[in-house]
Specification:
By secondary structure, this protein is α/β, with parallel strands linked by helices. About 40% of the residues lie in helices and about 15% in strands. It contains 14 helices and ten strands.
Length: about 325
């Protein structure tokens, strides 16, 4: 009987998102791909250090208990198959025994494989791949490889923080803000407070997380937070939207434009998703973070990313 990924939360992740391959990547970007491969082969028995998304992946995999596979993590990388050997060995060395599947494309576009995987999340350090995945309708984020690593203060909780507009929700309201300013935005959201916002690019991931949380697990639980620049009276519509979806978040931070980093530091997420690079750069000083290049704030970004589609993910 063939294997199936049905009813699992499926995360596709690149090598540099899961492990710290920044030194190796610098060699690759110098233009010497053969030297890069030789270095990876020379270091095949040297486990790579954990990367920015390592904590998120490790905790999600902890839901695989009692012989039941609830989470599948698949390596999806522009790396070559030789480098892929080190990736799998590093995963085993760090106790990530459930990572057994991988696609290594040796520089070619990997995002096409998201469809047969049915991925609920794609994490990569390659902005072009992330932009393409989002364009195809898959939740995806470019990992800020310079971000600090996750706190180990909550070993039995997967903590995930989301921005709202253009991440969990569509950018409908953000477009009003960008074109007409804050007052128009507040009025727009007050008038439509009872009308659910359309789903954003990360709605499928949030839904899959919610299903995973409902399975129940004594060893691990999920704690989520909405961290948004919104403030009252524009706070009501997002909460009503989540209720309409049948989903509740554990925390909601309506910051009214305050910098998010310090608040995220107190929440201590394993990962934070936001559509604005400025928020990600600030957040990355405090927590693991990734940029969701979606919505009006990133208009034209996908074309720019495609033009720079080079380097390992």
């Amino acid at each position: 009987m063939s294997s199936t990924l049905k009813d699992q939360l499926i995360v596709a992740i690149s090598s540099r998102a899961l492990f710290d391959f920044e030194e190796e990547n610098c060699l690759f970007e110098s233009g010497d791909a053969h030297a890069y491969t030789r270095l990876q082969l020379d270091r095949i028995d040297q486990p790579a250090a954990p990367g920015v998304a390592f904590s998120l992946v490790k905790k999600l995999l902890a839901f695989n208990t009692g012989g039941i596979k609830r989470v599948e993590v698949v390596m999806l990388s522009r790396n070559d198959p030789v480098s892929g050997m080190r990736v799998f060995r590093s995963a085993q060395a760090h106790g990530l025994k459930h990572i057994q599947r991988g696609v290594f494309t040796q520089g070619r576009d990997p995002f096409h494989y998201l469809k047969p995987l049915g991925a609920h999340l794609f994490l990569s350090a390659n902005g072009a791949d992330v932009a393409q995945a989002l364009a195809l309708g898959y939740p995806a984020a470019q990992v800020a490889t310079q971000a600090v690593r996750a706190s180990d203060a909550h070993p039995t909780e997967v903590r995930i923080a989301f921005d709202g507009d253009a991440v969990l929700f569509s950018d409908e309201a953000e477009r009003v803000f960008q074109s007409d300013g804050l007052d128009a935005f507040q009025n727009h959201e007050s008038e439509k407070a009872a009308l659910p916002l359309p789903p954003g690019p990360f709605h499928p991931f949030l839904t899959a997380l919610h299903r995973l949380q409902q399975t129940g697990n004594e060893a691990m639980r999920i704690r989520t937070a909405l961290v948004t620049a919104r403030s009252a009276p524009a706070n009501e519509r997002p909460i009503r939207t989540l209720l309409h979806w049948g989903i509740t978040l554990d925390e909601a931070l309506f910051l009214g434009g305050l910098p998010k980093g310090e608040f995220l530091r107190e929440f201590q997420p394993d990962f934070f998703f936001d559509d604005q690079n400025g928020h990600i750069q600030h957040a990355a000083r405090h927590v693991p973070a990734g940029h969701v290049a979606a919505g009006i704030a990133n208009a034209g970004a996908s074309n720019h990313a495609q033009a720079k589609n080079t380097g390992q993910p």
